[in-house]
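comment on this one:
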Amino acid sequence: MSNSAQIGVTGLAVMGRNLARNFARNGYTVALHNRTAARTHALVEEFGHEGDFVATETAKEFVEALERPRRLMIMVKAGEPTDAVIQEFAPLLEPGDMIIDGGNAHFEDTRRRERDLRGQGIHFVGTGVSGGEEGALNGPSIMPGGSKESYASLGPMLEKISAKAPDGSPCVTHCGPDGAGHFVKMVHNGIEYADMQLIGEAYQLLRDVAGYSPAQIADIFRTWNTGRLDSYLIEITAEVLSHVDAATGKPFVDVVQDRAEQKGTGRWTVQIALDLGVPVSGIAEAVFARSLSGHADLRAASRELAGPKAKPLGESEAGAFADRVEQALYASKIVSYTQGFHEISAGSDQYDWDIDLGAISAIWRGGCIIRAAFLDRIRAAYDARPDLPSLLSDETFAQEIAAAQDDWREVLVAATRQGVPAPGFSAALAYYDALRADRLPAALTQGQRDFFGAHTYRRVDREGSFHTLWGGDRSEVEA
C-alpha cells in the first residue's frame, strides 16, 4: 500500500469521522481505520467526494498508508480502550512517528503514555479538542501537548483545520510537554461547567423571581449576547429557551427532566484543584449542582421542607431585576475564569510545563464551547502582564466587578429571601470577598488544629512555628 496519507484517524465515531473529514476538506490525504471495517467504508462511500481518503481494514494496512513521520490520531474512548489501541499500533511504528490522542483523556494517563512511548522513540501527543461534533468538522479549538518536535510536524496541520478567531488567528497552540494539552482541556471543561451553571441560575432567577416566561428569557439572553456576555453558550441558551416542544406545545425546558449528567472532566478539574491546593469553588459548585440534580429520591423526600416560595415581581421591578442579574452573571463569570486560569498556572508550575495563559485564552476565542468575546480581553490582560497573579488584579476587570458588586449582592439577597438556589453566584461572591478580606477565620482554624493535634501555627509578629501548651499554663513554645 502506498504511504501517501499525511495523517490517519482510527476510531470513526462522530468525533473521529468529522475530524477525518475536516483534514480531507483542507487538502490532506487521510488514512481511515476502525475496529469495525464497515464504518470505514461507509465514511468513504458517503463523504469520499470531500477529499482524499485511504480506507484500510487492518492495523498493518493503516500504518503502511501513512507517510513518514507517521501521524496517527486516536479517537476512541478514554482509559483502557485508548491503551488497547496504543498497544496495537505502537509495535508497528518507528522512531520519529507520533500517536495523537484526541480524546478526553486524564492528563496523568497522557503523561504515563508519553513517557512510555518516548522510550521507544515515538512521540505521544495528548490533544484536547473542543467544539463538539460541529467543531470537529468545521473547526475546533485544539490544545495539543507533547514534544516541540512533534508540534513542528503536526502543528501546521492542526492550525489549518482549527477554528479561526475573529482576527483570523488559528485556535491552536502548543500547550507544553507531555500532559499539558489534556490538562488545559480538562480545565476548559471545568470552566464550561461553571459557565453553564451560572447561566442556569440566571435563567431560574429570571423565571422564579422576575416572573418571565422561557420565551421572554430567551429574548433577554439574545440582548445580553449583543454585549459583554457575547458567547456561544449565551447564544445557544436563547435557542433552547425559545424552543417549543412539538408534542405538547409546552416550552422545551418544561418537558425535559431537570437532571444534568456529566462525563467526568469537570469532576477531574475539582479533584486536581484539591491536589494542587487551588480554590475552584465556582467549578466545584457546578459539579455538585449536577450531582444534586440527579438525586431524585432525595429531592422528592425534601420537597416539603420549610422555606419561602418565590413570588414573581411586578413588571417594572422585573426589568430592573433582570439588569441586576446580568451584572451578577458577568461578575461571577469573571471569577470562574479567574479560578480556572489559576489552576492552569498552578498545574504549569507543578509539572514544569511553562503554559502561556495569554495563548490559551487566545485559542478559546473560537471553536470551543466556552468561546466568548471577553476572552480577547483576557488574552490582552495576560499579554500585557504575563505574571498577572489573577484576572481580578487586572485594572479593567477589577473596575467592572466594582461596578457590578452592589447588583450582584442584591441578586443574592433576593435569591435567599425567595428561596431560589444560586450556589454558583454565591460561591463566586464568597471567593471575591475572601480575597479582599483583611483577615480570614483561618487564624481560628489553625488555633483549633494546634489545640487538638499540636499542628503548630505562625505568628504575625515574628518568624517561626509555634505551639501552645493548651493543657497546662498555656505557655507558648517554639516548634
